Amino acid sequence: MLQHLTIPRGPIELAADLHLPGDLDSGAPLRTVVLSTPGSSVKEQIGANYASRLAARGIAALVFDPAHQGQSGGEPRDLEDPYRRGEDISYAIDALTTVPGIDPHRVGVLGICAGGGYAVHTARTDHRIKAVGTVVPSDMGASFRGFQPDGVVAALGTMAEARIEETRTGELTREKWLPDTLEEATAAGLTDIDTTQAITYYRTERGGHERSTNRRLSRGDSLLLGYDAYHLVDQLMTQPLQVILAGRLGNTGSYESGMRLWKLAPNPVDLMVIDGAGHYEMYDVPEYVDAAVERLASFYHDHL
Description:
Structural class: alpha/beta
Distance between the termini: 21 Å
Number of helices: 11
Largest sheet: 8 strands, mixed
Shape: globular
Oligomer: single chain
Radius of gyration: 19 Å
């Protein structure tokens, strides 16, 4: 069962889908999980794959488009602001408290890829969140800092000059998250399995969606470079934590990020490594997603 929601977020609204268990006859208030999804994705993609499966296991699951992306409001478009991504989660929880049948004291989060870092960062200080689940979690700040060939300070200097030019001309620039095609990736020398699988998911009929633009507003990159998703986790994020990782290590860094989170967290309760799975295969390959959701559902049933 799917219910479309509009989430007030200051002057704009977020578009969301609430996946509900099919049997609502018991009348008991529902435990609910808010999903925080990968960068560049929309609610109909990875989030829906996990939310629908959680609902089938008796757990309501809310997935939304971030501000400035998908069907949600916010200008300029395609902004990936890690701080706003975290605030989106809290606004989603606000909205859930007004939905009949939802228990506001049994709300958890599920963060996937970049959304894992955003979920963790939010849970540190929003203790309405009672349990934190993650799948291939990534700290986008650490990832972006690692991709700067001339160093972070040089990159920030270049971004500063670019923003001066944008302000002067009024023309905003955007970057691609990924090459748009496998041919484009090959021409750029990007033939590793993770890039190939990311393109195969996001940029083909397999997982692509018309509102997933594969574009990122350039001026948001300086925010990502200064972001630390796990700052103060060791002191503030006392909720039970679950970490699910892909067993095939690649160049995404999510395995290393997840293990770092596991070691930092004050209350880690469940760690799962899915043998044979790659990072992007955790998005939609039924064998791997089903295994992850079975473990997630058990975690949420125990801790919500």
